[in-house]
Write a structure and sequence with these properties.
Distance between the termini: 20 Å
CATH class of the largest domain: Alpha Beta
Strand content: 5-15%
CATH architecture of the largest domain: 3-Layer(aba) Sandwich
Structural class: alpha/beta
Number of domains: 2
Strand order of the largest sheet: 3-2-1-4-5-6
Number of helices: 9
Number of strands: 6
Helix content: 40-55%
Length: about 220
């Protein structure tokens, strides 16, 4: 029997929405409706998709440049109202659970680094029965939002891992820029919020087009 191949990455950090969780289109619609609710001009689908992965208020402010700052709290409340109405419609992408369990069997540390709020992530983890799958997580409201590298710095410090042995996986340029800023390698997925034409400039190890392709790449390269 051949010897097992050495593990390349000790810690694998995943973005959540659009990478593991099939939520991109609902988030886009919720952003659009929230902006209209407070009297702003409805952002295009492209503009609303672009801000996914940022912290909530930063994302909404970017998507609604004609909404005054004094209405941001109301804008955030409207977004959360619309999102909660659709939360039960969301699910993991097919194959995600199988992939995560396979990585755990190989003894990788698994983490989530997301623009969601702590409350929102915890509710989602309970809803899809993922408690215990991840070793740690960071959310935008408890640390700096993407592309600031603080999320990854904190995760690496928590587990004592080096940047070159920490892999970030995400569906947006914000995810890949965060990895680059932290000195970590990354993998981009093209099935989420951002179209892949801008990914190559951010130097991902790979651009994959499905969860099945991501799973195969990780088994071969992680």
């Amino acid at each position: 029997m051949p010897a097992a191949r050495p593990r390349q990455f000790d810690l694998i950090a995943f973005d959540w929405d659009g990478t593991l969780f099939d939520s991109t289109q609902i988030i886009v619609r919720c952003i659009q409706q929230a902006v209209v609710d407070v009297g702003g001009t409805m952002p295009t689908e492209r503009a609303a998709s672009y801000v996914i992965g940022m912290g909530l208020m930063e994302a909404l402010a970017h998507a609604a440049p004609d909404v005054p700052a004094e209405r941001y709290a109301e804008l955030g409340a409207q977004y959360r109202r619309h999102y909660l109405a659709h939360q039960d419609d969301l699910s993991l992408f097919e194959g995600v659970l199988t992939m995560l369990h396979a990585l755990r069997e190989r003894q990788h540390l698994l983490a989530v680094a997301t623009g969601k709020s702590r409350r929102g992530l915890d509710e989602t983890l309970r809803a899809v029965e993922l408690a215990g799958v991840f070793d740690a997580s960071r959310t935008a409201d408890e640390t700096a939002g993407k592309p600031d590298p603080l999320m990854l710095h904190e995760l690496m410090e928590e587990f004592g891992t080096e940047p070159q042995r920490t892999l970030m996986i995400g569906d947006t340029t914000h995810d890949l820029q965060m990895a680059l800023n932290a000195g970590c390698p990354s993998v981009a997925v093209s099935y989420g919020a951002h179209t892949p034409e801008n990914f190559a400039a951010l130097q991902p190890r790979a651009i994959v087009h499905s969860v099945r392709e991501l799973h195969a790449w990780l088994l071969e390269n992680a």
